Amino acid sequence: MVRLSFLIPILFFLFWLGSFLIVGLEESGYAFVLFWFALAFGLQSKPTWKAFSFPVSILGVVTLGMFFPQYFQEIEGFKLTGLINPLIQIIMFGMGATLSWRDFGAVAKSPKSVGIGILAQFSIMPIIGFGLAKVSGLETEVAAGLILVGSSPSGTASNVMAFLARANVALSVTLTSITTLIAPLMTPILMKLLAGQFIEIDLLKMMWDIFKIILLPVGAGLIVNQVLGSKSSWIEKLLPLVSMLGIALIILVITAAGRDSLLAIGPILILLVLLHNLLGYGIGYGFSRLIGMKEQDARTLAIEVGMQNAGLASGLSNILGKIATVGLAPAVFGPMQNVTGSILATFWSRKGLREK
């Protein structure tokens, strides 16, 4: 069964390779898309590789948006970018609906780790993003996207990666929740300070926009959780799937919208985003160990710092009306972090925990 699961993607890859050599890249896109989705399905057949299934399927989504952008930009006059913010709100509602006040208990149990995590989240990645933007040589609005994604809170995917990496899941959930809740204050301030020279930032408007995208749906989800109590278990099972589909659709729409710009500056931007992501992991982990945090918490901090809420950054770039410029870095960062995060989590899961 396992061999058959991987035989299909191999056949699709060979089919794509043959099509590419015969009819060219543009005409062979459908085979390449099928290869990624078949590979994602095949990875489901082996428990140790399941963690890579979603990141690989996201690569399939990106490929779909790159080869067939015309189908995911507009439908009968409705621009599909209009779906981005409602989808983010649904994802944030799902996050709130799976939280309870007990999830914030890590603050009382380890306030030092939480405090350090919040400080690292809103300092390391924004500063790295600013540095990369300054030296990138990219158009100012595109460069500002690096700062925007760096100034965003951590995303819910970090909680899954923390679990796979044998990190401190309770601390991960707490950091994701708290950084998300204070993002309406911190993200606009950081953008004003660091990205003000790249694009015009309306501080109060951005605060209100993030409040609507994050706090309102998260708050509504928390209320639903409290009211329904144990009856909300079906919601907790359904919403992760809804969130994954929402993330995939957001990435698809953004990739299609910025496809031409991505083709023009893709290699440089991919390199910068990869560097941003990896430096987040590395500095987050190194800083944690340097100040004496235990291995499990250091892994958590590395993942929380390195993995950002790229969906929120995309939503903000859409509100700014700059989805095809400011939104490019978040569009690349989202799929990138899913791949690198899965690799890092798998590596740590096999390494075990050893203290100095």
**Percentage of residues in helical conformation:** over 70%
SSE string:
HHHEEHHHHHHHHHHHHH
Total beta strands:
2
End-to-end gap? 43 Å
What is the residue-averaged pLDDT? 85
Structural classification: mainly alpha
Sheet-strand content, in percent, reads: under 5%
| Major sheet characteristics | 2 strands, antiparallel
Low-pLDDT runs of 5+ residues are none
**What gyration radius follows from the Cα positions, in whole Å?**
20 Å
Number of alpha- plus pi-helical segments: 16
Provide the spatial order of strands within the biggest beta sheet.
1-2
Query: What overall geometry do the principal axes of the alpha carbons give?
Result: globular
List keywords for this structure.
356 residues, two-stranded antiparallel sheet, 16 helices, 2 strands
Précis, in short:
This protein is mainly alpha-helical.
Structural notes for this entry:
This protein is an all-alpha fold. It has 16 helices and two strands. The protein has a two-stranded antiparallel sheet with strand order 1-2. Helix 6 runs parallel beside helix 14. The protein is globular. The termini are far apart. The mean pLDDT is 85.
